[in-house]
Amino acid sequence: MKRLLAFFILLSLIVSGCNHAEPAVELSTEIAATETPLPPPTATSTPEPTPVPEKNTHYQFEMELDYSRHSAQVTQTINYVNKSNFSLPELMLVVPPRAFLNTYEQTELNGDRLAGFTEDGIRTTIHLNQPLEPGQLTSINISYSLSIPQREGSFGWSQRQLNLNDWHPFIPPLSSEGSWISHDPLFDSANLVVGEYIVNEIADFDLTLRLVEFLPNLLVASGAKAEPLADGMQYSLKKARELSFSISNQFHHEQLDHNGLLIQAYVFQHQRDRAPAMLQIASQAMDLFSEIYGPLNLDQISLVSADFLHNMEMDGLVLISNRVIDFYDNTAENNLTILLPHELAHQWFYSRVGNDQAMEPWLDETLATYSELLFYERYHPELSEWWWDNRIYAHPHSGTVNNSIYDAGSYDNYRASVYLNGAIFMHDLRLTMSDQPFMAALKTYVAENAYQIASKADFLQVFQAANPNVDIPAVFTRYFKD
Length: 482
Ligand SMILES: [Zn+2]
Prior knowledge:
By secondary structure, the chain is of the alpha+beta class. It is built from eleven helices and 22 strands. The strands form five sheets. It has a seven-stranded mixed beta sheet with strand order 5-8-3-2-11-14-13, with helices on one face.
């Protein structure tokens, strides 16, 4: 135990996480699970904007992690606050690890109002012995073990990394009609997951991590702030959508205190000479996006080399494909300079302003892709045209911008429509509105929808108000379907 303590103190370096990557494409390569692809869920609508909740749902975890065996024992308490206007006779619990065979084994599910529960795929319906009224709180206790799958992705392990994203049961948001916003993963013909399907509301997270064995050089990257305990580490993340980790005993760690924001880079040992450039690009991106979209007041952000071929944003952490980092050539004509700002823009469009990533993925992906151009315009204006040619026009770049992940059907179509045609749409919108109202609208959109789950209607309203003299819906009509 002494060794463990020393080890943990040594690792005050510990960091945090977020989600997206691609060698040249941004691809969520989730590998097939236990289930065949399910049909698209019934449409759910996005809730009306509500005031910032005074009290968030709280997730408390005790995790005992066995890095070598890729397993964890977890006890979890959810203190759920009914922030809706609906009386809730039941709660939904989404269990993402159940999308993978033999991964999640539940040994206890209890609660102060629990009358029973039914399980169906990744969803558990908790029946309450009396409805949870608006403003009321209920506690749910869950114990389970995780056998993390060996797979490429943000939930899985490889020989040199273990990634924990979307790893625990959570209660999804409610729509304005009072239905749970919960979708199924979509696997394409190559058995990869298209886009992201999980929708989270803002919550608070606390996790105590203990390791079952001492491993030299083990580093834990996380989106959360870490404090050493007598026998482990305590992670705390407030007003976030999830709590993720990326762990490796082969990381090289470097950090930069940038005007009060701790930026941490976790790369593999052979990439150590890339870390300074990553910290530099990230500091520029965080400065620019704070200026354009408004400050986030984050304490820290982690940039992690992912042992797979895609990129992923998470709360306070981004995973960048190790190949993107390998191919960095100290110029800005490079995927690292494109994709690192993209993933960091998701701290605004995904984390701060949430959206239904399955049904309206353009609200984070289109905006993150366009943020890349804003980055080039500011720091490498001579390469703006290069960005258009290399990032957009060199690839298929058509299709309905507000495709759902189910409409797009494949990752290629999803990318062509939501990301690439999406950037063309944003530029058209900007030229139509003119620069100043467009930039003002971006900032207002973030401010008005912070901590919420925004919809197309929210976006449209803000952009129309920013320039009432132009026909904004006409621009939408050229790129969107109703
Ligand atoms: Zn993205």
